[in-house]
Write a structure and sequence with these properties.
Blueprint: E1 7-8, H1 11-27, E2 34-40, H2 44-60, E3 63-69, H3 80-92, E4 98-101, H4 114-120, H5 132-139, H6 148-158, E5 168-173, H7 176-187, E6 192-196, H8 203-207, E7 212-216, E8 233-236, E9 240-242, E10 245-247, H9 252-255, E11 261-262, H10 269-286
Parallel strand pairs: 1-11, 2-3, 2-4, 5-6, 5-7, 7-8, 8-11
Antiparallel strand pairs: 9-10
Length: 287
C-alpha cells in the first residue's frame, strides 16, 4: 500500500514566517545583533551553507561577518592555532553575539581538532549549543540555547500536530553530539527512540519500524522506499552537495509515495535550521 497524498512539509514557508518575526524584534533594538562564522578550507557545501546564513542575516538586519581560513583565496596556510586565535578575537568582540564554526573541519594543514575548537567558543556566544558547557546545561534542563537543528526538527514535527509520546522515532546519524542532544530532547517528550548508524547492517530493519524517521547521515539517497513503512513521517536533515545541487539522505521521489509526510531537500530542514540559528543569535544578544 502506498500513500500518493503524502504531505510535503514546507520548511521554507515556516522559516519565512519565523524570520519575519525575528526581523520585527531586531528592528526594535537600538543596536544590531552580530553573528560571525568561521569557515575553514574550501568545501563547497560548507561555503554554500554559510552563504545561506549570511543572506538570511541580511534580510532581517543581523550584522554578519565571515572569517575564511585555510582557503586557496585566503590564508591558505592557516592552522588550528589561527582558528583558535580567531575565536578568541570574536569572543572578546562586543559587537559579536553569536559565533559559529562551520563543520566538518578539513584534514589539512596539520589537522583541526573539532572538540578543542568548539570548546574555545565562549558559551555565551555559542549559537549552535555545541560547547561542553552548553551541552551539559541542555542535559540538566537549563539550556542557554538549544541546537538549531534540534529546534528545526521539532518545529517540523509540530507543524504536523504530532505528539511524540509513545511514537517510535528512529534517528540515522553518526554524530555523537547530535544524537546525545536529540535523545534527551525526544525522550523527555515520551518518544521511543532508536539511534542507528548509517553503516549498520540492520539499518533497513530499524528504519522500517519508525513512525517518525529522522536522517542526519550526509549520505545521498541512503533511505530507499523499501526501508520505510506506509504513513511514516520523514525528516530529512542530511544534505549533501552533489554536482552543485543539494541532495538529501532520502530518495525523495520514491519515498514520498509511501510516507504520510516528508520534508524536501532543499526547502525542508535547512531553512528552518538557519532561522533557529538567527533566533538563538537574537536571544544571546538580548540576554
Amino acid at each position: 500500500m502506498t500513500n500518493k497524498q503524502s504531505q510535503i512539509i514546507d520548511g521554507k514557508a515556516i522559516s519565512k514566517k519565523m524570520l519575519e518575526e525575528i526581523a520585527t524584534k531586531v528592528k526594535k533594538q537600538e543596536n544590531r545583533p552580530g553573528l560571525a562564522a568561521i569557515i575553514v578550507g574550501d568545501d563547497p557545501a560548507s561555503h554554500l551553507y554559510v552563504k545561506n546564513k549570511e543572506k538570511a542575516c541580511q534580510k532581517i538586519g543581523i550584522n554578519f561577518s565571515g572569517y575564511y581560513l585555510a582557503s586557496k583565496k585566503c590564508l591558505p596556510d592557516a592552522t588550528e592555532k589561527d582558528v583558535l586565535e580567531t575565536i578568541d578575537f570574536l569572543n572578546k568582540d562586543d559587537n559579536i553575539h553569536g559565533v559559529i564554526v562551520q563543520l566538518p573541519l578539513p584534514k589539512i594543514n596539520g589537522g583541526f581538532d573539532t572538540a578543542k575548537i568548539i570548546k574555545a567558543v565562549d558559551p555565551k556566544k555559542d549559537v549552535d549549543g555545541f560547547t561542553p558547557k552548553n551541552l551539559k546545561a541542555f542535559q540538566d534542563g537549563e539550556p542557554l540555547v538549544t541546537s538549531p537543528l534540534i529546534q528545526a526538527i521539532q518545529t517540523l514535527i509540530d507543524s504536523q500536530n504530532i505528539k511524540l509520546k509513545n511514537q517510535k522515532v528512529v534517528a540515522v546519524t553518526r554524530s555523537e553530539i547530535f544524537s546525545g542532544t536529540l535523545k534527551k530532547h525526544l525522550l523527555d517528550q515520551g518518544a521511543k527512540l532508536t539511534v542507528v548508524s548509517p553503516e549498520a547492517k540492520d539499518l533497513a530493519k530499524k528504519t522500517k519500524q519508525a513512525d517518525i524517521l529522522i536522517s542526519v547521515a550526509g549520505r545521498p539517497n541512503l533511505i530507499k522506499s523499501d526501508m520505510v513503512k506506509p504513513g511514516v513521517v520523514v525528516i530529512d536533515a542530511g544534505t549533501t552537495l552533489v554536482d552543485g545541487k543539494l541532495v538529501g539522505d532520502v530518495e525523495y521521489d520514491q519515498v514520498k509515495k509511501i510516507a504520510g509526510a516528508i520534508t524536501p531537500v532543499p526547502g525542508g530542514v535547512g531553512p528552518l535550521t538557519v532561522a533557529w540559528l538567527l533566533k538563538n543569535t537574537v536571544a544571546l544578544f538580548s540576554s
